[in-house]
Amino acid sequence: MDATTLDADAVARWLTDNLDGFKGPITATKFDVGQSNPTFRLNTPSGQYVLRRKPPGVLLKSAHAVDREFRVQKALSGTDVPVANMHLLCEDDAVTGSAFYVMDYVEGRTFDDPRLPELTNGQRTQVIDEMGRVLAAIHSVDINAVGLSDYGPEGNYFERQVGRWTKQYRASETQTIPQMDQLIDWLVANIPDDDGKRTLVHGDYRIDNMLFAKDRPEVVAVLDWELSTIGHPYADLAGVIMQWQMPPGNEGRGLAGVDRAALGLPTDEAFIASYCNRMGLPGIEKFGFYLAFCFFRMGAIIQGVKKRALDGNASDPARAAKLGSFVPMFAIAGLEATKRG
């Protein structure tokens, strides 16, 4: 079985035995979004669900952690962070070929393009402000109260992350990219001292990983928690800014060169200032490091996507191969970010 298919009958049998109130059969439809963990909408007589699974095949160690995704979203139920209701985690590969979890289907709208062309200027301002509000909510979660204090190791988050993603990158490396090697060397030499900030971080916080209500600028669910951990909040904030540095359009999904004022969108500086205000911070020094780190990590991630495409394990092989060609671009952008204050 490949990453694009799901044995709906096997899932229905498992859910019948394990989920109260479930009634089959299942009609499964794969979502087009997502390159990491294949995700399916399940239509059943008892309701609509979403199933998210690991891709089959040989995987990089610690990648595709659906068990962590399930745990963190379940822990966030009842907090100020909007998440879907979690039902069950299945870690028995014998059921469908890989581990998966099942959650409620949440009705909402998604925005793939941060220019938000379908909205008015006022609505754009509200949507991006809501994005900032939810980011601050994630970083304000009491990790002890929700049982996530052990969700990530102690110590210097960026030291740990640079080491982790360097190993992941090397494990999926298919050619030498000099700029990526230069960026890794710079990051290792410039890791900030541990300042004691230790919060929940999403790890891939961007507008296309959020579901908004159909009729108002309110987030109803934050999605795709695969990279979440306990770490440093500036990584999430810099991740938003990194995405906005990308070219606009279907591939870059960024705001580079866009007249933001004309569209009612904030500058990088205004978004960062709003975040700092919500978190009670005077400002953020050496933001260039955090931005460079995010470019590096994304480059490492899409290198892994490319490797899975070559190995035949990608959720969308054609798109995965194309994404992989962008690794040098992320490395170059990361080196540019090192010059930023």
Automatic annotation (TrEMBL):
Keyword set includes Kinase: yes
CDD domains: ACAD10_11_N-like
Pfam families assigned: APH (PF01636)
Segments forming domain Aminoglycoside phosphotransferase: 28-251
GO terms, molecular function: kinase activity
UniProt keywords, alphabetically: Kinase, Transferase
Domain of life the protein comes from: Bacteria
Coiled-coil ranges per UniProt: none
Protein name listed in UniProt: Predicted kinase, aminoglycoside phosphotransferase (APT) family
Lineage of the organism: Bacteria, Pseudomonadati, Pseudomonadota, Alphaproteobacteria, Rhodobacterales
